[in-house]
């Protein structure tokens, strides 16, 4: 079984990836891990990618595509199937993946999109705040202070938010991801393999819905 996992930041994609791996023993391939592994092993493509990364440049699509092909051609993938996470990131990469699968005699069985309204994700992602005095971290929804406005650890009343956690920054990051994901969603919807899962549910219910889809193709 070969999968691709999609979802906006904060949608719970990482948690669902772990659950899928635990049940189906599929090979989880994230772009970051793939780059690190190829560079550590000093494969020809890994060295090519390292040349760009060392200069602080983005790795071009054609190098990323080569890296994906190298990884998907390995024995563990042939035996257990793969779950791609973070690739493809654009339409050209999606078309390249189709060609890679064809070249390797593989097939993408399903694209799982953990779908959560961006407005809900803004609340999830911008809820973190930190005690200015001792650095204790809280979240207004998931882990508030026991007494409003008072740090549990040191009793301070001063808190701050990191730039990355501020609502406007989070909204911008989500908008970029929505723009990037929309053509991919359309592409895989036309292909008939896209499955949108409601990510605004309890974690176990989200996985139950994912599992229902996977059971049909496993």
Overview of the molecule:
The protein has one domain (3-116, 170-217): 3-Layer(aba) Sandwich (Rossmann fold). The protein is 52% helix and 15% strand. The protein is globular, with a radius of gyration of 20 Å. It has helices at residues 13-24, 31-40, 44-54, 61-72, 75-80, 91-104, 118-125, 167-191, 203-217; strands at residues 3-7, 27-30, 82-85, 110-115, 128-131, 137-139, 159-160, 194-198. Strands 2-3-1-4-8 form a five-stranded parallel β-sheet, sandwiched between helices. Strands 6-5-7 form a three-stranded antiparallel β-sheet, with no helix packed on it. It has 218 residues and is α/β, with parallel strands linked by helices.
Compact description:
The chain is α/β, with parallel strands linked by helices and 218 residues long. It has one domain: P-loop containing nucleotide triphosphate hydrolases (Rossmann fold, 3-Layer(aba) Sandwich).
Q: Provide the β-strand percentage band.
A: 15-25%
- Supply the CATH class: Alpha Beta
| Main sheet characteristics | 5 strands, parallel
Question: How many structural domains in the coordinates?
Answer: 1
What spatial form do the alpha-carbon principal axes imply?
globular
Low-pLDDT parts are none
One letter per element, helices H and strands E, the order comes to EHEHHHHEHEHEEEHEH
Task: Estimate the mean pLDDT confidence.
Answer: 94
Structural class: alpha/beta
Helical amount: 40-55%
Enumerate the strands of the largest sheet in spatial order, edge to edge or round the barrel.
Answer: 2-3-1-4-8
Helix segment count?
9
The fold-level CATH name is Rossmann fold
DSSP E strands, number: 8
CATH-assigned homologous superfamily = P-loop containing nucleotide triphosphate hydrolases
Ends distance: 6 Å
Q: How large is the radius of gyration?
A: 20 Å
Protein name: Adenylate kinase
Region (NMP): 30-59
Subunit structure: Monomer.
Pathway: Purine metabolism; AMP biosynthesis via salvage pathway; AMP from ADP: step 1/1
């Amino acid at each position: 079984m070969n999968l691709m996992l999609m979802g906006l930041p904060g949608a719970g994609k990482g948690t669902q990836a772990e659950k899928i791996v635990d049940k189906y023993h599929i090979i989880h391939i994230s772009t970051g891990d793939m780059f690190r592994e190829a560079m550590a092993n000093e494969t020809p493509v890994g060295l090519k990618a390292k040349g760009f990364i060392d200069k602080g440049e983005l790795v071009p699509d054609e190098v990323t595509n080569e890296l994906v092909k190298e990884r998907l051609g390995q024995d563990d993938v042939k035996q257990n199937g793969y779950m791609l996470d973070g690739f493809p990131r654009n339409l050209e990469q999606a078309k390249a993946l189709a060609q890679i699968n064809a070249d390797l005699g593989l097939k993408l069985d399903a694209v799982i999109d953990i779908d959560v309204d961006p407005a809900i994700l803004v609340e999830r992602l911008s809820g973190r705040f930190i005690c200015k005095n001792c650095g204790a971290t809280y979240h207004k929804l998931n882990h508030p202070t026991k007494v409003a406005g008072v740090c549990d650890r040191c009793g301070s009343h001063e808190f701050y938010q990191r730039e990355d956690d501020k609502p406007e920054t989070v909204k911008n990051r989500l908008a970029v991801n929505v723009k990037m994901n929309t053509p991919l969603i359309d592409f895989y919807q036309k292909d008939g393999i896209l499955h949108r899962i409601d990510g605004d549910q309890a974690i176990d219910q989200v996985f139950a819905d994912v599992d229902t889809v996977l059971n049909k193709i496993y």
